[in-house]
């Protein structure tokens, strides 16, 4: 536990109050640390053994046509490339981690307060997702790049990054409708209209997975109590955004449309807390980066000094991480102790 909390504390302490435009040394060192920490882990993460089983029983396709006939061709291509180089399973995690860290870093550096954004990704997005469900993590990483494109009002690239993410986990395609409203004024009606127009396209792309998702997320009896807690953490900045939205729009006009869309999406997830906490569990990971942006930008507005709001933001994620490690059976069984192939 102290390894994880120590890394987070170091990142947070380095980030709070660090508002320089360039933080090249911070990001280079942090990226190297994260790739090493995530990529060379050994039997750490709840899906580690599951992906190792998939790796052992994976046989690369004999042609590109066969590759793209299967589900999530991007991950198959990644596994096939690592196997073709004669490397072992650890290097699949290293390769995936390198892609993830590149996505995380690019997402953070597109915004003000970039070091803090990267630090806040660590407790959940990096540990709980990036070190476990690497297919969804990769999809989420490319979704973050689509959020950057959305901020730049680039509709085509917003869609392209989502479709690339779909090659690792098909569920991310449900965010395709946001491409239609990139560069437009954001409101509930326009968001609903884009969902109505591009929603069926996403549905067609997910058609062969619909029965699986229906049985798992709609008809299934399994619930996720942790999803409710994580959703509460995600929801935390939304009331403050509503209160200070005029100030946010005035001081951060370029990112304001993305933040407004983030608040609408987060609020739209509320019914899932009752209908399907398992579906909420999966979607939480996709929207948490948006919630972190809300928390960081609103934190800079809501207090007399940005540093005060950012200390509270770092404290909220630190407290969540502490209680998760102390109270979660998944944390105890999957992440403790942390082991690394360098020290075996």
From TrEMBL:
Cited InterPro entries: EpsG-like (IPR049458)
Coiled-coil features, chain-numbered ranges: none
Bilayer-spanning residue ranges: 24-42, 89-109, 116-138, 158-182, 189-207, 227-246, 258-279, 285-303, 310-327
Keywords assigned: Membrane, Transmembrane, Transmembrane helix
Identification of the protein by name: EpsG family protein
């Amino acid at each position: 536990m102290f390894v994880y909390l120590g890394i987070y504390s170091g990142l947070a302490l380095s980030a709070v109050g660090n508002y320089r435009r360039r933080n090249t040394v911070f990001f280079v060192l942090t990226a190297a640390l994260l790739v090493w920490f995530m990529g060379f882990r050994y039997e750490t993460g709840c899906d580690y053994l599951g992906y190792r089983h998939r790796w052992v029983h994976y046989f690369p396709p004999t042609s590109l046509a066969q590759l793209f006939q299967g589900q999530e061709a991007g991950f198959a291509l990644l596994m096939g490339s690592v196997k073709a180089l004669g490397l072992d399973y650890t290097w699949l995690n290293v390769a995936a981690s390198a892609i993830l860290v590149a996505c995380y870093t690019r997402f953070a550096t597109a915004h003000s307060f970039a070091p803090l954004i990267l630090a806040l990704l660590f407790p959940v997005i990096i540990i709980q997702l990036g070190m476990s469900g690497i297919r969804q993590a990769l999809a989420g990483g490319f979704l973050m790049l689509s959020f950057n494109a959305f901020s730049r009002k680039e509709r085509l690239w917003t869609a392209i990054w989502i479709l690339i993410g779909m090659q690792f986990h098909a569920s991310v395609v449900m965010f395709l409708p946001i491409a239609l409203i990139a560069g437009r004024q954001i409101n509930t009606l326009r968001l609903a209209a884009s969902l109505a127009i591009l929603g069926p396209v996403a549905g067609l792309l997910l058609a062969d997975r619909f029965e699986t998702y229906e049985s798992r997320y709609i008809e299934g009896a399994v619930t996720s109590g942790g999803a409710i807690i994580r959703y509460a953490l995600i929801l935390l900045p939304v009331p403050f955004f509503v209160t200070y939205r005029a100030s946010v729009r005035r001081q951060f006009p370029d990112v304001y449309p993305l933040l407004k869309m983030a608040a609408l999406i987060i609020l739209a997830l509320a019914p899932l807390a009752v209908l399907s906490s398992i579906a909420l569990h999966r979607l939480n990971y996709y929207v948490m980066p948006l919630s972190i942006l809300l928390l960081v930008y609103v934190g800079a507005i809501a207090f007399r000094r940005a540093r005060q709001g950012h200390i509270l933001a770092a404290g909220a994620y630190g407290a969540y991480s502490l209680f998760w490690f102390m109270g979660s059976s998944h944390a105890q069984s999957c992440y403790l102790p942390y082991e690394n192939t360098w020290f075996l």
